[in-house]
């Protein structure tokens, strides 16, 4: 009744609505021109025949809403909230990376090219995105080979030019080898090259070459000839993707069950600059219209340059508001098109074909259960036979060889599986011998798994160096099992592998190393925590040995019977006599030991 009344009293303004379950979790976020009409539409008989909506509506306990001044404002707010909350029933794009661009700093006296992933409205020229990033590197190297653009960050007046100038890859503005006017001609050539106006560039270069030749400046003419040949080579290597030399993105997708693959072609000045694909899961029964609309909103909400035209393979009723939003982001007119024939239709089909091949390959190789990319990278970097879905890590903790314990933590699918954690009290090693202690823990763990017929892990990680790894390998040999095993030493974060004579050192930024560190540190934390608990318990229980007539055997019997030292302290003589192997004289001594202080205090 409360929900029905709330729907009845919803405003007729544009805005965003948030549907929640009885735990307050957001199930779905949507936008509407009229909040009241849109929300009420979910509770009609026709809509409830849709399995996806029926599942959603059955869980709705409360509806919250935010009023906006326009549908466009509602679209922007909806996208922000979806990105923040990632609701179960919304299509959520989980790739929020910034893409690489080339920035030409035309607002500087002697402009240069900068690689950046942040696009700003700062008066500079941005070209891209370049995908993959290797395409950007190739373009940048070619420009520096052909055009003598400065590469240094700041211009500092020097007595001699830099190495780039000596290699004829810089005009030398720092030493006055080139004036601003002549340098700007080079900048204009670079600009034409990056804008895709290579025919215009060729004509300008040819004109300058003939003029230099007429002036008998043959050295300059030869340089211009080399530039012309380099540009012509680039033109031969590039295929014209579109007759109309416009900037546009072409987007389409293929879906299978709850899997979907989006592909985007980035067309700049008629050439295919790069492509990007996304594979992720979506709520089943989500409509194609909702899928394409959600993707476009989330993709262009990122720090990316919006082209003049966005071509979609599937139509959406929201295309008008999408156009307005993209126009606002561009700062100039933008269009959303759904071509039914001609060049645009063929381009969409090519994009869709790429998506089809990618999704088929994904489904075959991963059976819809793709391992975490970090685990895949870890398998490659550690030369493992397969992706380590299950990882077990071990550590030893002791106090100068006494009260030694071991720990094992378990990682499954890149997440801690705490129910699989295990503690070990060292029983067979005395003194300071970490290697022997590690041998004991590993032997007990894997001997038990073998006896119980349980599954072995895909990787064993040991906290320590080469000696710890050798101890572990000895255990595997004794048990006659083959298991990938590595050790990670704290000091230099070196990884020791059985098959390598020297330790492996990964970059500190490596996701694989960071994962190993996280697992190793968790094993260390677990070992330290257990060791402190063990020491505390031993320190308390050692009080029993101070009592006359109580030795190791009677101490163990007392702790086994009562369960803790505090319960022993509270027991009277009759209760103490119920402990096996305890005579009346010892029971009296124990009672007196724990109660004599109380009696002394009461007498005072």
Layout of helices and strands, plus pairs?
Blueprint: H1 2-8, E1 15-20, E2 26-32, H2 35-40, H3 51-59, E3 62-67, H4 71-85, E4 101-104, E5 113-116, E6 125-127, H5 133-146, H6 163-166, H7 180-194, H8 198-214, H9 218-237, E7 248-256, E8 259-268, E9 271-281, H10 288-300, E10 309-312, H11 319-330, E11 335-337, H12 342-366, H13 373-381, E12 390-399, E13 402-412, E14 415-416, E15 422-425, H14 434-452, E16 459-463, H15 466-479, E17 485-489, E18 494-496, H16 511-541, H17 552-562, H18 565-570, H19 573-576, H20 584-603
Parallel strand pairs: 7-10, 10-11, 12-16, 16-17
Antiparallel strand pairs: 1-2, 1-3, 4-5, 4-6, 7-8, 8-9, 12-13, 13-14, 13-15, 17-18
Helix pairs in contact: 4-11, 7-8, 8-9, 13-16, 14-15
What is the β-strand count?
Answer: 18
The end-to-end span amounts to 70 Å
- CATH level-two architecture of the domain at 377-533: 2-Layer Sandwich
Q: Kindly report the average pLDDT value.
A: 80
Inertia-based shape: extended
CATH class of the domain at 377-533: Alpha Beta
Structural class: alpha+beta
Low-confidence stretches: 599-604
Strand content: 15-25%
Annotated CATH homologous superfamily of the domain at 377-533: UvrC, RNAse H endonuclease domain
Let me know the largest β-sheet.
7 strands, mixed
Helical content stands at 40-55%
CATH topology of the domain at 377-533: Nucleotidyltransferase, domain 5
The radius of gyration computed from the alpha-carbon positions, rounded to a whole number of angstroms, is 36 Å
Q: Count of helices?
A: 20
